[in-house]
Write a sequence for this structure.
């Protein structure tokens, strides 16, 4: 009899506990479509002139090479020097270097972009250009069934699709 009462008591205690049947279902979907933009990064460079040597002199009517100022929008120009050996028959060395700088472009000139394509560029010493993307047929769809369709666009485009379903039972 004690065993029956013990069994009956255990059944009654377990019946008083609430049943846990929490169910959570989440669905999320996303598409991301992007088209790269065109850009140009251009930096003007200045004119530079260097000369060095040993056992070198300027000619009788000459001068050392130099830069000469131009106009407000033009880069400096080079005025070439006239050199000769100082002591005939002796060793000599001579080095000369010239970099032509960039002229100043007028305001409003520079890179023109049409439909993501760079049509013309500024003519500067340092120029980095990136042609933009063309969307073309770029597209993305996600159905409620989770079927994801991504359509490629032109160059410089990306398409990403994601469908996530989650079921949590507590």
């Amino acid at each position: 009899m004690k065993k029956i009462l013990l069994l009956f008591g255990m059944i009654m205690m377990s019946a008083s506990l609430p049943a846990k049947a929490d169910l959570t279902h989440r669905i999320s979907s996303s598409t991301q479509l992007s088209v790269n933009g065109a850009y140009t990064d251009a930096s003007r460079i200045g004119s530079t002139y260097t000369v060095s040597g040993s056992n070198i002199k300027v000619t009788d009517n000459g001068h050392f090479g130099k830069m000469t100022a131009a106009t407000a929008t033009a880069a400096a120009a080079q005025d070439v020097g006239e050199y000769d050996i100082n002591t005939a028959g002796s060793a000599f060395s001579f080095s000369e270097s010239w970099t032509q700088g960039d002229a100043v472009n007028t305001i409003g000139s520079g890179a023109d972009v049409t439909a993501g394509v760079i049509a013309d560029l500024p003519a500067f010493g340092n120029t980095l250009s990136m042609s933009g993307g063309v969307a073309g047929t770029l597209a993305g769809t996600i159905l409620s069934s989770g079927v994801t369709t991504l359509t490629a666009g032109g160059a410089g485009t990306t398409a990403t699709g994601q469908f996530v379903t989650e079921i949590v039972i507590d």
The chain has a mean pLDDT of 82. The CA atoms of residues 34 and 158 lie 5 Å apart. DSSP finds one helix and 14 strands in the chain.
